[in-house]
Amino acid sequence: MRNVAIRLGTGLVALLLVGALQVPSSALERGARSIERSTLAVTRSRVKIVDFAFRPGTLRISKGTRVKWTNKGAATHTSTSNKGVWDSGSIAPGGTFSRVFKKIGTFKYHCTIHPQMTAKIVVS
After folding, report:
1. pLDDT at residue 117 above 60?
2. In the prediction, which pLDDT does 121 show?
3. CB 91 within 8 A of CB 77
4. Please, are residues 69 and 97 in contact by the beta-carbon 8 Å criterion?
5. pLDDT tens, 32-76?
6. Nearest one of 82, 96, 89, 40 to 64, comparing CA atoms
7. Which of 66, 74, 103, 116 is the 20 to 30 Å CA partner of 37?
8. Does the pLDDT value for residue 1 go beyond 70?
9. How high is the mean pLDDT of the chain?
10. Of 87, 92, 93, which Cα lies nearest the Cα of 110?
């Protein structure tokens, strides 16, 4: 009888330990998802198109950042890479265009409608 009690007690302790080990891993998964979400929130940046200019003229971002251009002016514009990496097409007043920068480097761009409008994005 005593051996049965010891075996039951040992079995219960083993079950409790296994259960305790599972809780931290699920907590870690929740923490990882939380960190992932906060990273996504941080990795967004904006460029405003106002008065025939890109603001800011030079944007410094980290690799993987999504940049969103918003046309705050009254004229239609584009965001077009000088080297053909991207072309937004026409961005009407109030319109937007976005793209993720997956590579490190300096990316110069312009408006094809108004070539005097130039800017650059520096990705590190």
Report:
1. yes
2. 98
3. yes
4. yes
5. 444 444 444 448 999 999 999 999 999 999 999 999 999 999 999
6. 40
7. 103
8. no
9. 81
10. 87
CA distance 28 to 113: 50
Preceding peptide of 56 cis, ω within 30°: yes
φ and ψ at residue 106, rounded to 5 degrees:
-110, 125
Residue 72 is encoded by which pair of tokens?
A: 């705050």
| In this structure, CATH architecture of domain 44-123 | Sandwich (2.60)
Backbone angles phi, psi at 86, to 5 degrees: -150, 160
Query: Cα–Cα distance between 58 and 53 in angstroms, integer?
Result: 11
Q: What is the mean pLDDT of residues 77-89?
A: 98
Q: Put residue 77 in one of left, alpha, beta given phi > 0 → left and psi -120 to 50 → alpha.
A: beta
Q: How many CB atoms lie within 10 A of CB 49?
A: 27
Tokens describing residue 28: 């870690």
CA distances from 17 to 3, 11, 22, 25, 26 (A): 21, 10, 9, 13, 15
Output the pTM of the full model: 0.67
Tokens representing 81 are 């890479």
